[in-house]
Amino acid sequence: MSDEAQELVRMHRKRIILEYAKGIGNCHEARREFNVNRSTFYNWKKVYDKEGFEGLRRKKPNTL
């Protein structure tokens, strides 16, 4: 699978988890169900709320 295809799969997984949490109205339960760390989940949620699906793309680290 190409790097771009793998990245899209990761982005879709993140969106599925976020939408699942929204649908059941319980972030804790969704995080437990998908085994996602609390800080990771809320980082995803923050960028998804601000930037939408494209915000879920992995960012390259800032280098000095």
Topology (SSEs and partners):
Blueprint: H1 3-24, H2 27-34, H3 38-51
Could you characterize what this model shows?
With 64 residues, the protein is mainly alpha-helical. Helix content is 69%, strand content 0%. The chain is built from 3 helices and no strands. α1 crosses α2 (27-34). The chain starts with a helix and ends in a 13-residue tail after the last helix. The mean pLDDT is 94.
Q: What's this model, at a glance?
A:
The chain is an all-alpha fold and 64 residues long.
Query: Outline, from the CA principal axes?
Result: globular
Q: How is the main sheet built?
A: none
Average of per-residue pLDDT values: 94
Structure summary, number of beta strands: 0
N-to-C series of helices and strands: HHH
Measured on Cα atoms, how large is the radius of gyration?
12 Å
Q: How many angstroms does the end-to-end distance come to?
A: 32 Å
Count helical runs.
3
SS-based class: mainly alpha
Give the % helix. 55-70%
Strand content: under 5%
Provide the low-confidence segments as ranges.
none
Looking at this protein, list some descriptive labels.
64 residues; mainly alpha; 69% helix; globular
